[in-house]
Write a structure and sequence with these properties.
Length: 176
């Protein structure tokens, strides 16, 4: 089984913010694959399943994501090499994607939380959210800000490209 972890913050107030682009990708795939999210209190996550792929949106705040990821991986017995974490990256220009087999958290608190539990050897897909506004308002306010009108017009393309990269991950051979 492959495990997709989409990072974001729970709650309507965070719904369309930069920090929640991971959740947006998850919702895009759930719609595309016609699967429904169900909240699992024990795993602290919304979960959907498509064939041999588990989609998850941890429902703990961003900096506590690792706790939910650890529970999910243990419950489903998923090795780190079958895990893909999808998150925002304020160090990449808006709309760009970077897939890495391992690495640092790059200042991303969700990745930091996961790495504290798993180490840094897991695959992550980072989606760039940076623009000129970041320099004006600072990182914390920036990640919690909503996308500009121009960015919203491009989001469909950004989500589709992320889904294509996820499809490549899914079609890799599964490690048992």
């Amino acid at each position: 089984m492959k495990l997709l972890i989409f990072l974001g913050n729970p709650g309507l107030g965070y719904r369309k913010t930069r920090h929640n682009i991971g959740f947006m990708v998850g919702d895009y795939l759930a719609d595309k694959w016609n699967v429904k999210w169900k909240f699992d209190k024990k795993l602290s996550a919304e979960i959907a399943r498509h064939d041999d792929v588990l989609l998850t949106k941890p429902q703990l705040f961003y900096n506590l994501t690792g706790q939910s990821v650890a529970k999910i991986m243990q419950f489903y017995k998923i090795p780190p090499e079958n895990l893909l974490v999808i998150c925002d990256d304020i160090n990449l220009p808006f709309g760009t994607h970077r897939l890495r087999e391992k690495g640092s958290d790059g200042g991303n608190n969700g990745l930091k939380s996961i790495s504290a539990i798993l180490g840094e050897n897991y695959i992550r897909l980072r989606i760039g959210t940076d623009n000129d506004l970041r320099a004006q308002i600072g990182d914390i306010d920036f990640v919690l800000s909503k996308f500009s009108k121009d960015e919203r017009a491009q989001l469909s393309k950004v989500l589709t490209e992320a889904a294509d990269k996820i499809a490549d991950f899914i079609t890799r051979p599964i490690d048992k």
